[in-house]
Amino acid sequence: MIRMRTPASWVVVGLDNGGTTNNSTVLDATGQYLVDKLVETPSLVHEGPDVAVESLATAFDAILAATGTARTLVRAVGLDTPGPASADGVISSKGSTNFSQAAWHGFDIRGALEKRLGLPVIYTNDANAAALYAHYAHFGAEATARSSVSAIVGTGLGGGVIEHGQVITGAAGMAGELGHVHIPLHGLLEPDQPVPVCNCGFEGDAESVASLTGIARNLLPYWLTRFPDHELTRVEPIGKAAKLLRGYGEHGDPLARAVFRQQAIALGRLFTIAANFIDPTGYFVGGGVVEAAPEFRDWFLTTVREHTFLRDEQARAASFALVRDLDMAGARGAAVSALSFLHTSSTSA
Ligand SMILES: [Zn+2]
Q1: pTM, rounded to two decimals
Q2: Cα dihedral 134→161→171→27 (10° resolution)
Q3: Which of the pair, 85 or 257, is modelled with greater confidence?
């Protein structure tokens, strides 16, 4: 059962556009979400931009109806999609996994939705939306005075950098691509372990180790040679074995722990770079590992922390946390970006 609140003020709507569903939420001006669960409708992105924009409009109408919110209370809409896309929501000219049809290439999804709804639409990529949600969920009322870095371990390694409560987007919308930051490998790899390679072409970046792809492509093939009698040597293809690995890790399996230990060290080294680059208050970790059994989850975060080298002053100021409710993070982060856009434009006007 979804708990609903009625709005206490004007609101923003957050729409998270995924490969199969749109998730939506409503956030009021006091920072309260009007729904505490996922509200999903079909995204139909594979039917092309026209159908998909109409589906976003349907999701918008549905969440207003479900929360009893009058349309006249909505001041802006936050939209997030998977990338690559520009900082203002133009899908890459090469398309992407979710936007493979030719009609999507170079399509301005933000502008199209803004035109369809007749309301300002603020765009964020899904990784940055999750980082924004993590930041506001952790810091609450202090969010606009704090900075953070979030690393979300999934198929790839996503995340984002938040400064004073705002996403750092960069000149081309490509800031916070944490996965493709090179990390030192000395002491992380075993002496006879091949240097991991990333889908982006880099060797030894964070994603080449700390992602599901990194497990399947780099870590697991090596570690299976160290555990030749392991059950997973008989699982084909390797991508399937990689997905099963977390379950083994939860039960303390030495091979799985060796792989996840390397991932945690990689995140620690990435955070060490972040510490010297932006010196954030918050270091957040999300992804499949957060959904795991508490002992495993806590061991993973502790290992990340042990390998994040902070100066004493930094260590006193820093907080490490897991990103929870990741399934709602996109819609909620998108809503936060819309709310913060309105707050910023009203104070600077
Ligand atoms: Zn890469």
Answers
A1: 0.91
A2: 20
A3: 257
